[in-house]
């Protein structure tokens, strides 16, 4: 059923850097799709190294967990980030059969839905590895041509669909790169993960 769901990703370092402290994880599971955006505090090689560590830990967890859930994913990231500079993250799981899923996040990462329903999901303040309040997942569902975006704060949160009219029509990979290229801030690492329902 995953052929109903497209997933895309794009990561870009801030101006003056060759490595990004942001990371995106996209994982196709037996019964759905999981995506995550991880934004390590700071920039440069050290932030990039931690981003690789956290994304690797999450990918390893995803390889064996029967059904991934956002709360569990953030708990895994929180433990992996202990004793480090810390990070923020947003994660989403979508069931490929029902096209229903859940989202969770911590810190100043963002989540927006476009298409038949326009919605912004806000996350609680906190930092993975040091302070994380109890999490609350948000349920969502995708209909034909609906798009879910997760992105770091290196992307401005105020863009509208009028500034990107083909947002719900483009392939997921094109949406991810266009969001970062059009609305990314040069002063910060920027990343975007996309889920799109084809029909």
- Anisotropy-based shape: globular
Radius of gyration: 15 Å
* Largest sheet report: 5 strands, antiparallel
The CATH superfamily bears the name PPM-type phosphatase domain
Average pLDDT over all residues = 94
CATH level 1 class label = Alpha Beta
In sequence order, what are the helices and strands, one letter per element? EEEHHEEEEEEHE
Number of structural domains = 1
End-to-end CA span: 12 Å
In which range does the helix fraction lie? Answer: 10-25%
User: How is the largest sheet built, in terms of strand order?
Assistant: 1-10-9-6-7
Number of strands: 10
Named at the architecture level, the CATH assignment is 4-Layer Sandwich
Q: What's the number of helices?
A: 3
Tell me the CATH topology. Answer: Phosphatase 2c, domain 1
Structural class: alpha+beta
Contiguous low-pLDDT stretches (5 residues minimum) are none
Beta-strand share of residues: 25-35%
